[in-house]
Amino acid sequence: MAIFEKFDQFLDMRELDELKESREYEISRKLEDALNDTCFDRIKFAKTLQMWHPTLQQNFYGLIQAVICWMASDKNHFIDGRNRASHENAKEIAEIVSGQGVPFI
Fold first, then answer.
1. Which of 2, 45, 56, 69 satisfies CB 3.0 to 4.6 Å to 52 for a cystine?
2. How far is CA 60 from CA 13, 32, 49, 65, 77, in A?
3. Which residues touch 53 (CB under 8 Å, ≥6 apart)?
4. pLDDT tens, position by position, for the chain (105 residues)?
5. What is the end-to-end Cα distance of the chain in Å, rounded?
6. Where are the domains of the chain?
């Protein structure tokens, strides 16, 4: 469970501050804004992937794997009724994908 083990604890304040300075944080905030829009169409977004280069599709899939493993962790985020179903589903999927890396080609 290589990916899963990277998400076994909350980040401390120093790590959170460093994360907030990263480009990944900036990109995640833009995605957060898009997802917060009730008109965001997940299916349409998924269909746009066919226009991506195959290597970028592979990288995106690796991102999805990491997100699933993060969502599956009991130790790194608050879980309540709003995200319980995603957490439980992610735990099932993480059992399958967490040990499988995707090559960078």
1. 56
2. 28, 16, 9, 9, 22
3. none
4. 455 556 656 677 888 889 899 999 999 999 999 999 989 999 999 999 999 999 999 999 999 998 998 899 887 678 888 999 999 999 999 988 877 777 776
5. 22
6. 2-10+42-97
